[in-house]
Amino acid sequence: MAPATASPRSDPRDPTARWSDQVSLTPRILAVNVFALLLLGGGFFYLDSFRTRILDSRVDQVRREAGLMAEALATAPKAARPALLTRLARDTGARLQLLAPDDAVLLDSEQLGGPAFTLVDPRTDGLSQRAARWLDAGIDFIVRAPSSPTYDPARNGMPPDPDMARSTHALSATVWRAPDRTPVITAAAVLPNRSTILSTINARDITERVRVERYRLSLVVLTALLISVALSLFLARTIVDPLRRLARAAVRVRLGRAREVVVPRLPERRDEIGMLARALSDMSLALRARIDATEAFAADVTHELKNPLASLRSAVDVLARVDDRDAQARLLAIVADDVHRLDRLITDISEASRLDAQLSRAKFERIDLIAMIEGLLAQRNQRGSTRGIRLHLDLLPGAEVPVMAEGARLERVFDNLLDNALSFSPDGGIVSIAVRRIDHDVEVRVEDEGPGVPAEAREAIFRRFHSVRPSEEAFGKHSGLGLAIARTIVEAHQGSIAVESREDRLSGARFVVRLPIAERDDSA
C-alpha cells in the first residue's frame, strides 16, 4: 500500500493563510461585505466631529453676541436697560443676566418676562430619548470625546465666566452639559462700569440636529446591511452550495463508489463553477472509463494467460506418464511453444499496460518519416522475415516528410502493421507501403492481399486481445495486442489509424495512418 502523502498546505508566511483556510466561504463573503458597511457606519463617528464644529461655531456666536449686547447695554440709558435686555433675550433665545461686580444679579431676562430658561429633566423622557442619550454616551466613550462639566447652578452657583471676563477684560465662554446631555453655553462680557452681561443658552438644536442625521444614517446603514446580507447569502448559496455538491460527489468517488456517483454538470451555469463542474464530471467519467478498461484488461489478461497455461499443464502432466521418446519430444515441443507464447504474451501485456505512462513522458523529436520506413524495410529484408512476400515502397523520390515523434514508438506502429499484413498475405503476395502528403498531414497506407477485414469488425480489431486470424495459422502466434498498441501510439502522436477495403482488388486490407507534419519552427 502506498504511503499517504500530505495534502499541500498554504504558505505559512501568507498572513491570510492562518484564517482563510479554516473559514467557510459563506462567513468570508459576509465578512467582506459587512466590513464595507462598517466603514459606512463610521459616519456615526464623523457626526461627532460634525457636532464639535457646530458647537464651536455656536460658542463663537454666543461670545460675539455677549460682546455686542454689552456694548448695547453700556450705551443705553439705565432706565431703558430692562426693556433692551428683554428684547435681546427674545431675539437670541438666551437667558440674559446683568451682574454687578460682586456677581449680584441686577437684571434677569427671565424675571423681566423674557423666554424661560428650563432644563429638561431626563427622568421625564420617553424610551426613544433615553435610547438616544445612551447612543450619545456610547459614541462619546468610543471616540474619547472630552467630557463637559455638568451645568447645575443650584449646586455650583454662578458660572466662572463673569470673573474670567473681568479679570482678563475679554470675552469668556464655557460649554456645559445639561442633565439630558444637551450642551449649555455660557458667555460673559464686561461693561465699562465693571458690571457684566451673562448669556446662558441651552443649545438643544445642536443635539437634535446630530441625532436626526444619525437617525438618517442609521436607516441608510440598516437598509444597506439588510440588502448586503441578503445578497451575500444569495451569492454564498450560488457559490458554496454547488461546491459542496461537487465536494460530496468527489468524496464518494474517492471512497470507491465511482460507478454509482453522478457528478453534477450544472449545465445552466456558464461561469467558472459551471466549468469546474463539467471538468470534474468529465474527469470522473474518464476515471470510470479507465477503471472499466483496467478491469476489462485484467480479465482479458487472465483469460489469455489461461490458454497457454492449460496447454502447458496438460503437456507436463502427460509427460510424466509417457515413456515413448517420440511422444516425449512432441510434448517437449508443445511445452517450449507454450513457454514462448507466454513470454511473448507477457511482454506484449507489459508494454500495453505501461504504454500510456511512457508516452506521456516521451520526448518527441523531429524525424524523417520516409527515412524511418526505409530503414525498417531494410532491416526486415536483411533478417529474411518477409516469408517470401515482396515489400513495395510507394513514395516520391527524394521526398522528405518530417514529423514530431518518439522514433522507437512510431517505428513499432509500422512494424506491427507489417507483421499484421504479412500474416494475412498469401505466399508470393505483395505488401505495399505508400506515403503521401495531404495538406498539413502525411498519410501512410499499408496494403496487403489477404482476405480483408469485414466492415463490422473494423473497429473491434483495434481492441486489446481481439484477433481474427487466418485459419491456416497456428493458434497463439499473435497476442491480439499489436493493433491496440499501434492505435495508442498513433493517437499519442495526435494522429489517427483506421482500416478500409482496397478499391483496386476484390480482397485485401488497407491500414491508413495519418500524422501531422512538423512545421519548420517545430525544430527550434
Automatic annotation (TrEMBL):
GO MF, any single term: phosphorelay sensor kinase activity
PROSITE patterns (UniProt xref): HAMP (PS50885), HIS_KIN (PS50109)
CDD domains the record matches: HAMP (cd06225), HATPase (cd00075), HisKA (cd00082)
Chief location bin: membrane
Top EC class, one word: transferase
Annotated catalysed reactions: ATP + protein L-histidine = ADP + protein N-phospho-L-histidine
Compartment list: Membrane
Every Histidine kinase domain range: 300-519
Known EC number: 2.7.13.3
SMART domains on file: HAMP, HATPase_c, HisKA
Stated name of the protein: histidine kinase
InterPro entries to which the protein is assigned, alphabetical: HAMP_dom (IPR003660), HATPase_C_sf (IPR036890), HATPase_dom (IPR003594), His_kinase_dom (IPR005467), HisK_dim/P_dom (IPR003661), HisK_dim/P_sf (IPR036097), Sensor_TM1 (IPR025908), Sig_transdc_His_kin-like_C (IPR004358)
Pfam family, one: HATPase_c
Key words, A-Z: Kinase, Membrane, Phosphoprotein, Transferase, Transmembrane, Transmembrane helix, Two-component regulatory system
Chain ranges passing through the membrane: 29-47, 217-236
Domain of life according to the entry: Bacteria
